[in-house]
Amino acid sequence: MWTDDALHGIGRSEREEFGLALVDLASTFPKLLVLDGDLANSTRADIFAVAQPSRFLQLGIAEQNMIGVAAGLATQGFLPVVTTFACFAVYRALDQVRVLVAQPRLNVKIVGGYSGLLTGVTGKTHQAIDDLAIMRGIPGMVVIAPADDLETRAALGAALRHDGPVYLRLTRDPGPRIRQAAAEFEIGRAVQLHQGRDVTVFATGQQTARVLQAANVLRSRGIEALVVHLPTMKPLDVEAIVRSSRATGLVVTSEEHQTTGGLGGAVSEVLGEHSPLPILRLGIRDVWGESATNDDLLEKHGLTARRTAEAIEDFVRRHQSLNKHSRARV
Which candidate in 14, 16, 17, 63 is catalytic? Predict the structure, then answer.
């Protein structure tokens, strides 16, 4: 249970906010259609189905076909939003996403619910923990991972306004709000959430809240962490990544995703090209998930606020010690 007072209360789940936001945005986007793969009561697309039954299409357990239908609708000027679990949208329908949506750059929005590890004890078959790596590797695909319910609503609006394919990664369970009120969402823009001079920590999705908790723990131990939230995994805010990293000289990434190809890989690519610096990548390390409680999964993979703070502190202390010895030798 989230109780950290430094954050801003517990919001709705991202999936519930997604369903409510769809209803509110329906009048703004008259061509909006929602396509479902027989999971509307889980993704909460059922909220839209009740409010706009004529604009809700139930495609059944046929995700590849659903992507094809969405592509066809997009060619006729509609704005299709495809909803299902991330594991089905990204893995089962990947060929259709690549060939039918991404290559012709059609205006289709793919919403992957139940992403990451925390999927309600569903186990490794349903845990999408490398979806960001796959989707950001597709040319022309925008990839977004909001941190909370308020950002989910803003990100959905930005995704619908964007002309082209978008992958929106949503989580299952409620979490803390990283800000007190909704903010404008700009695709490709990073958000600095915590000031610091000792280490720069980048996070994405709901992991950002746990990183903010870790930053408060670190502050009590004399380490000031500069925390930057990257809700858009593609396109990346290269300027913000380089500027924030240079401000401290040490970099950490934290994500509820494989470190290979995910946020850690993306930030490493940017720094390798623009500003090579020591970097620690926290996340899932080349293993599958498993069926367990949220707390147990986060603990096992070192993603709790406590484990995150411990890893960052060790990283900073080691480099402080190395720098001290280097100065002594000089």
Answer: 63
